[in-house]
Structure formats: structure tokens, C-alpha cells
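User: Second chain of the day. Same drill as before.
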Amino acid sequence: MSDNHYLTTHLYKFFKKDGILIVMLKIKTHGPVAQLASAPVWHTGGQGFKSPQVHILMQFQTLTFTEYPSITLPQSVILEYPAETSLPAKDHHFLLYIPWQKKFLQLVPKKFQTFFSKVLPHLSARTTDVHTANCCQYIQPLCYAVEAAHPGRTIDQTVVTLALILHDCGWSRLSEKEVAASLGVSGLKLNATALGPKEKHAVEGVALATELLESYGKSFSLSEAQKDLILLAIRHHDQPEKVAKEGTAVPLEVQVLVDLDHLWSFTQLNFWQDVYRKGINNPQTYLENLQTDLDSYFVTPQGRALATRLWKHRQEEVAQFPTQP
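Assistant: Same format as last time:
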């Protein structure tokens, strides 16, 4: 089942009933959908999401390359190798990327599309452009769900959205070798080789985000407190265990950014990208690795529940993966 290529959702209305936030969505189908049966309602309680019952008959394609092995993946996913790289041939798979398409910009809230476009030149490394735009679609539902679990507290969605747009800009200041090292993992937990680049991109991201906010963010009339919160979220977005350990001492905006960023791993686009980019080459193995690492990869119960829902979508896809491409 696809998250955003077979279906698009639009917020219809939301209300509380018996202490549960009911979110009603209008669903429109796109692409090669063979079977669809849905009741367009999500609802979130304190712990998580319940999604429409949707069953998709998957259509797969095999991509062939002149110098690399063929790969099989859903028709809605496109992967390419860079035309040039300084890495040795054995490491080229770490640079497999999803090409940017203009349609991805429509996933960014309209108010922030101009700012996103200004930041876009700094998001080309490691598919962070497609990653960031796709995760924007989860901002509103995740913020609503987390707020529902914290009565009386409001999440600043301007802070969350700007932090999400900027959170990975630091990768643009790292080398191909460092990007490759960050992806040398079999699941989501970082090894010693990946930790260095991950830490460095967050530090570089804070520095670059400061410049980008100064250059392009004036229209948002941000207070110093909002700017500081954006930078704090960027600095800690890849430290879910540390953020979770500090608990309520960490602002909700930071917690939500961590989870928004990490939902990417469970989307159709990134799941299939990383099956091959990380060199796993077996979707069932990678699906199991994600399940093992899921709990510790998220800070909020609501983010964890949404990731679980997305994981189940990937499970449906992997069950239909052709054994003979």
C-alpha cells in the first residue's frame, strides 16, 4: 500500500468524542490502484492512529542499469545512481537517490513553499529534498495527536514546519564518503561508523539553518525564542533515545520533529530506497529489521503508532513482492 502515491488525503473535519480526537479525511486515489475499499476516517486517542482499511494490489517494476545489478520495486518508486562519484564501485549503492519532481512541492504547506524552494538547493544530498517534502504531510495529523495527549498544550506548527524543512540541510556540507558512511547500517540503529556523520550533519545543520533563516525567513516574523527552538530541534532530531530519556523537559516541538523525520524510514519511497541503498537487497529482511528498531526510534507514542501503521503498509507490499522478477 502506498502512503502518498496511490492516495492523497485532505482534512475534512475533526472533533472530540468520548475523549478521542476524531479526524475525518477525504481520500482520493491516484496511480495504478487495482483494488480499494476504505472508510475515510482516522481517529487518534492518547496512543495512536487507526487508518482506513485499504487493500492495494501492488504492481512492481524491474529497473535495469548498465553498470549495476537490476532492482525490483513498486512502479511508483524511481531510483537513480549519480552520474559521477568519487566513491569506489562497491559503495555506489549508498548514493542511490530518488530524483526530485515538482509534484513533491505540493506536499509542503502552501505558506512554506517559497521558503522550501529557497532551501531546496541545500537539500540535494542523501535524497533529503524528497524526504523533507514527503514528511510535511504528517505535520498536522501528528501535531493534533500529540496535542490531544497533552491537554492545555499547543504545538507551534510554524516552528515544527521550519525545523522540518531545515533539519537535514547540514548534509549538503558533508562529503560523499561521509554520506555513504551514515548509511552503512542494516536497520535504524547507528553503528560507530554512522554516528560521526550523523552528529556532524546536525551540527552543520544548525549553522546553515541559522544563515537560511536570516536570509529567507523574515516573512515569518519569528521571535528569538522560536528561532532558538527551531535550532534546538535541528540539533537533536537524530537523538531519539536522548530526547525520550529527558521526557517532559524537552519541548513538544522537538519531540514532534524527531518523529516526523523518522517516519520517512517507514514510507513507501524510503523503505524501498533503503532496501537497496543500504545494501540489504531483501525487502523481507529489511522489513524485519525496521520492526526490531521501531520502538526506540520514536519519542512520542503517537509517532510510534503512526510508524507502526506505515510499517503494516510495507508489510502488505512485501507480501506481494515477486519472487521471480
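The chain is about 45% helix and 10% strand.

User: Great, on to the next one.
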